[in-house]
Amino acid sequence: MTKINHTNLQYMPEQGIAGKFVDTAFDGDGILAGIRFHHENTFNFAFDIVDAIAEKTPDKHAMLHISNNKEEKIFTFGDISRRSAQTAHYFKSLGIKKGDKVMLVLKRHYQFWYAILALHKIGAIAIPATNLLVKKDFVYRFNAADISAIVCTSDGNVSEYAQEAALECPQLKTKIIVGQSKEGWHHFNEEFSQFPEVFNRPFGTEAACGDDPMLMFFTSGTTAYPKIATHTYKYPLGHFITAKYWHNVDPDGIHGTISDTGWGKALWGKLYGQWMCEACIFTYDFNNFEPKDIMALLEKYHVTTFCAPPTMYRFLIKLDLSKYDLSSLKYVTVAGEALNPEVFYQFYQATGLKLMEGFGQTETTLIIANLKGMEPKPGSMGKPTPLYDIDILLPDGTSAKTGETGEIVIRTKDRTPDGLFSGYYNDPEKTAAAWHDGYYHTGDTAYRDEDGYFWYVGRVDDMIKSAGYRIGPFEIENVIMELPYVLECAVTAQPDETRGQTIKATIVLTEGTEASPKLKHEILAYVRKNMASYKWPKIIEFVKELPKTISGKIRRVEIR
User: Among 195, 262, 441, 495, which one has the highest count of C-beta atoms within 10 angstroms of its own C-beta?
Assistant: First the structure.
């Protein structure tokens, strides 16, 4: 078990605004070994970080925003503080109050930052959502989360879907549009700027901080309807490690994370930790991911640190990266799904930069990672961060030994770390199923090597039980992904009368590669050469694309 003895550590306050709230301690190799927070029970990110930086250094750059048509805007912390204050007054004038649930469907529009900070100031609960939702998605989410207001982009058809859904959800009273005006909707762009640029911190029963609910995320829903993970005002504190010791952001640099604001990853990389570290964030409000576009912008704007999911790195390594001047880029990170080692090696060969993998969930902040100062092992998630007390449990509830696969759990018997969710909204049964007996059960499996590094195996439900062996899909996928013509791969179980389950590999080929019996034989031959026989796939299927959740995660349950 990995457990920090906090009583024996010597903590030192952090620098800048964060120093009021965060103390850290390091081991002999300079690796972060412990962290603790002050004033967490009164903490409100909008006031204590954004407004505080705006008061100290109002002209410091907070965000470089590039619109879809490449229009450039620079926002200072003073700008963000004033605009979020105006937005808070505007929302209150529309009847939004503390405890109300407000959905934000704003792509990468800069108004998202105004809106979410305004909700934090009011004490209303922000619910980020993707613009890929359609009517049935909205109906489910409006009702499941008791949403009473929505702030939505006018781009595309998403506001039409939201409006149709609202007819079936009488609790949704307030509709606000960003962009072009729309009948029946309040027009954000025309109306919010009429309000005062200062919003004073509420006190007493109107104050929002500490253990009050601040944020609700819909989970990915890989096997069923999405659950709703609720986070408190302590959640941003948990992301200090994310930004400073994983992303390694530079207060004088620019950090870019590729994520739509509808996903939790945007708040990992485009808001909380980065601004606690007083770093500028880079936001490109694109409609479609174009690898050449991204690389050109990283070069043009001298981005210093960068984070993206493995899927996007798989596209980037197909480019001739030598054509781009990436000399400003000092540090790169990856998360969202497990990283195939082949992607690590190809990116490193092309850029000289090592991808530092991290792992967390909608329900958590960063819980396992290759932190600053660590030497990454390609394909490993890294080691537990000092904020979380992590273990790997076997099905019988005992701790796994080195090399044994079990479920990743967070021990909460002694303390509940800032960053861990408070429960699933309106669902005590699912909360109790995941969080019981002093542990939060992640549902993800891994093993630990002799150096304490964690290696991802798969979801508990994705484990394959064949002829008495317990087999994780990820290591098989890693071997198949080494083939240059494989773009994506998902390994799943199929029923088998003799073995109980047999192994199936569903493969997406690179553009221009033709599926054939000969290619299938070549893949099987490669796997047989590089893996133990009990892990060999018995079935290979070529498909044009893999079924995925709305957040882009592979739905292995659908393949099964």
Answer: 262
